[in-house]
Amino acid sequence: MAVEEIHAEMVSSVWKVLVAPGAEVAAGDTLVILESMKMEIPVLTERAGTVSELHVVEGEVLQEGDLIATVTS
């Protein structure tokens, strides 16, 4: 089983969460949308699988490197 951990690439806030734990996702699907400096930044998964854990909620402020989600395939 492969595990993909998705991390924040910059300081940002969670604008919208589009998936829930247990959701099936395809490679390239958007999991959450972050907001930084008035820009919306989609966070994508690189592989198909299942969202095993979601570590953020809408409105949360993230630091660079914070874990957003875990996808298993």
UniProtKB/TrEMBL annotation:
**PROSITE patterns linked:** BIOTINYL_LIPOYL
Q: Name one Pfam family in it.
A: Biotin_lipoyl
Q: Which InterPro entries match?
A: Biotin_Carboxyl_Carrier/Decarb, Biotin_lipoyl, Single_hybrid_motif
Keywords (A to Z) from UniProt:
Biotin
Q: Where is the Lipoyl-binding domain?
A: 1-72
Q: Which NCBIfam families match?
A: PRK05889.1
Name this protein carries in UniProt: Biotin-requiring enzyme
**Organism for this UniProt entry:** Klenkia marina
Its lineage opens with: Bacteria, Bacillati, Actinomycetota, Actinomycetes, Geodermatophilales
